[in-house]
Amino acid sequence: MGVLDEETVNRIKQNLKWHPRGMTISDLSSKMQMNRNLVAKYLDMLLISGQVEMQVIGAAKVYFISRRVPVSALLEFSSDLVIMIDRDHRILQVNEQVPLLLDEKKASLIGKRIEDIQGPFMASIAKIGLDSKPMENGELVTEISCPVRGEEHHFRIKQIPTAFEDGSDGYTLIIEEITARKRYQQMLEISEARYRGLVQSSGEAIIGMTPEGTISSWNPAACKLYGYEEKDIIKQPIHILIPEGYHQDLENLLGRVMRGECLQRYEMQMIRKGGAVIDTLCTISPIRGEDGKITGASSIIQDITRDKIGRHVREHEDKYRTLVEDLNVGIYRSTGDPNGRFVWGNTALLHILGYRNLTDLEGIHVTDIFSKPDGRAQLLEELRKGGFVKNRILHLKRPDGTPISVSVTALAEFDEEKELTYINGIVQDITDYINSVTVSDSG
């Protein structure tokens, strides 16, 4: 029975309405004075099309008028595009979203086969493979892309096998536009590619971690800093880069990051391959997924070992200079070349030599302060031979020509080729002592 008699269908439905507690096939057959098998076939078709419902009560099948709203009545409430087609792909119904997309009138689409409608949208639907036996296949989901008004659009199509009121079958196509989602995904992929490019080319070590502290990414700068190749370090715990006594500190830091905190410029000692300890400056930030959930952490790491050593040296040098500034003896550092330049000198040295400030002293040759032309050369010769002189009496002169006598204790510095590079010395003014001895001797 391919086509249902509309009058018979209406009589069956009317009888079911009058009997809200339901009716069996025998009840309907008796009430309508129809053949029982014929009534059963009508009920099967109405059941498939969703116009009636059936419950098994004991050994009997009891039928009720359907309380469900027909699909056709719900079409217009959907924001998706909805197209109902028969097994020959002929359009039976569409909601208003479809003609709006196609710039067509609804009436011009009803009754046409999808393959006969011009335009890339319907052509793309025709290519998804609509089977001629809908009820034998389950629900299928397909994605298509096609131009709409000159722009590329993306759609997700759900094919739902559907039985219609006349007993025939076909499909209901629920078509969701996913263009915005696709574009967002493409932007994410582009951003991720750019991010990866930046990470790979960065001069700073960048390490990705899972919430459990497992290393998930490792850029070339990290390889250079720590000495591990990417293939050897991925999936290893981050703890292998931390001195053993600081593992709990690391756990606390990761806990803060996984709770959403970003740690800026945090100083931390870490370990290179082979066990060498380095000082680092870390910025650790949480990584969030599309849903905002934290999926890991990213660390940007700078090696500040040299900076810390330099800072340590400067601090000690500042303390040293502060100390020697308070001494009554001159302290100096000069180059070891024949003419020589003062690199640094304390206030007492400036007073002994008669200079107002260190800049003036740095602007002259050391040889210029010797009274004898070969005085500097003799001192250098002694330093080259012994590396050290103690209480060596030198005769010098101040800028105004006043002669002075000093006692010098000096230590030489040599480079790898044994060349004299610097001299560090202590100077004491003994002019009054020398003059008093000279007067005594003459008397």
Q: What does this entry look like structurally?
A:
With 443 residues, the protein is an alpha+beta fold. It contains 16 helices and 17 strands. The strands form 4 sheets. A 5-stranded antiparallel sheet has the order 4-3-7-6-5. The mean pLDDT is 84. The protein starts with 5 loop residues before the first helix and ends with a helix.
Look at the helices and sheets and give the structural class.
alpha+beta
How much β-strand is present in the residues? 25-35%
Quick one: biggest sheet? Answer: 5 strands, antiparallel
Order of adjacent strands in the largest pleated sheet: 4-3-7-6-5
The share of residues in helices is: 25-40%
Quick one: overall form?
Answer: rod-shaped
How far apart the termini lie comes to: 154 Å
Number of domains: 4
CATH architecture assignment name of the largest domain? 2-Layer Sandwich
Computed Rg: 48 Å
CATH class of the largest domain: Alpha Beta
How are the SSEs ordered, and which strands pair?
Elements: H1 6-18, H2 25-32, H3 36-48, E1 52-57, E2 60-65, H4 71-74, E3 81-86, E4 91-94, H5 97-102, H6 106-109, H7 120-126, E5 140-148, E6 151-163, E7 169-177, H8 179-201, E8 205-209, E9 215-218, H9 220-226, H10 230-233, H11 247-258, E10 263-271, E11 277-288, E12 294-303, H12 305-325, E13 330-335, E14 342-345, H13 347-353, H14 358-362, H15 375-386, E15 388-397, E16 403-414, E17 420-429, H16 431-442
Helix pairs in contact: 2-3
